[in-house]
Design brief:
- The structure is a single chain.
- The chain is of the alpha/beta class and about 270 residues long.
- Helices cover about 45% and strands about 15% of the residues.
- The longest helix has 22 residues.
Length: about 270
């Protein structure tokens, strides 16, 4: 989802070599080396990951192979070819116990296999390469695949009641806005760790109600439940609010408010796009 948005948003101004999973497996170091040596890019952006958070609990080996070894492969190839690497990571590196939004300096403490594998990926990149940006996003939605916003809008259209966790706060991230932010960091941002989300924080319940309101389905029933009631295999942090502190320090333009991003994405969906 995010990789395609990055390719789409950056392609008018940059020459992009985009590769799908079938074309480039980041766990295959030799193949990746051949691809990158042939492309000779000015920078590499890695948005590939094993992102099924619950499946990671039972497929631990695959999670670490894709989310930790994969980025390590890319970092060591980039180091050998002196190419900077941007690696995308997640709010799930945190345990969510902090009362306030998380800044980049906060200590990660993941609750799930997915979160641990992504944290190890961040560390592998940092260990092998100086010229790297780690960019953490959160609650991602946008074109090309189902996501929280599209699923809530679809349930609204069908008039189905929604059972939504009442104890999670987040900073939603629209892929097309994140791609703009990624371009700004690539152009202007010093290497390092960045939180990159749309502006404003919300609870899952408020997020759901705003999607339904904007989509014209405010009559749809939202039933608040606890995280435990979802019975999902992987624990999620209760607080996934990522403060974009590094971007602010660098004076790099922030992403628009999340409500505005929802409006634009719903417009994209109602125009018949996926
Ligand atoms: N979605 C969210 O809410 C969210 C939140 C926080 C952070 N993130 C992070 O944001 C980044 C982008 O996530 P996304 O939402 O765009 O995920 P996505 O839609 O699941 O895309 C991940 C892509 O990685 C590919 N992939 C999996 N294993 C690979 C491998 N070994 N080699 C090459 N490609 C591989 C997948 O291909 P297949 O489908 O063919 O396997 C898929 O195309 C990830 O780093 C993720 O951890 C996402």
């Amino acid at each position: 989802m995010l990789a395609r948005a990055i390719a789409e948003v950056l392609s008018p101004r940059h020459q992009i070599v985009a590769a799908s999973h079938a074309e480039a497996d980041i766990t295959d170091e030799r193949a990746m080396r051949e691809i990158l040596e042939a492309a000779q890019p000015d920078a590499v952006v890695n948005a590939a990951a094993f992102t099924d958070v619950d499946a990671c609990e039972t497929q631990q080996e695959l999670a670490f192979r894709v989310n930790a070894e994969g980025p390590r492969n890319l970092a060591s190839i980039c180091r050998d070819s002196d190419i900077p690497l941007m690696h995308v990571s997640t709010d799930y590196v945190f345990d969510g116990e902090k009362a306030d939004p998380y800044v980049e300096e906060d200590e990660p403490r993941p609750l799930s296999v997915y979160g641990r594998s992504k944290l190890e990926g961040e560390r592998e990149v940092g260990k092998h390469l100086d010229r790297c940006w780690i960019v953490r996003v959160c609650g991602v939605f946008g074109p090309y695949r189902n996501n929280f916003v599209s699923l809530v809008a679809e349930s609204g259209r069908k008039g189905q009641p929604l059972r939504i966790v009442k104890d999670q706060r987040l900073a939603p991230t629209y892929t097309l806005d994140a791609a703009m932010g990624i371009e700004r960091i690539l152009r202007r941002g010093p290497y390092g760790l960045y939180h990159l989300t749309n502006q404003g924080f919300t609870s899952r319940i408020e997020f759901t109600r705003e999607i339904l309101r904007q989509a014209g389905f405010h009559h749809v029933l939202v039933i608040p439940i606890s995280s435990e009631e979802t019975m999902r295999p992987a624990r999620r942090p209760r607080n996934s609010q990522l403060e974009n502190a590094h971007l602010k320090r660098e004076g790099i333009e922030l992403l628009p408010a999340w409500e505005d991003a929802v409006r634009r994405y719903l417009g994209h969906l109602s125009a018949g796009n996926s």
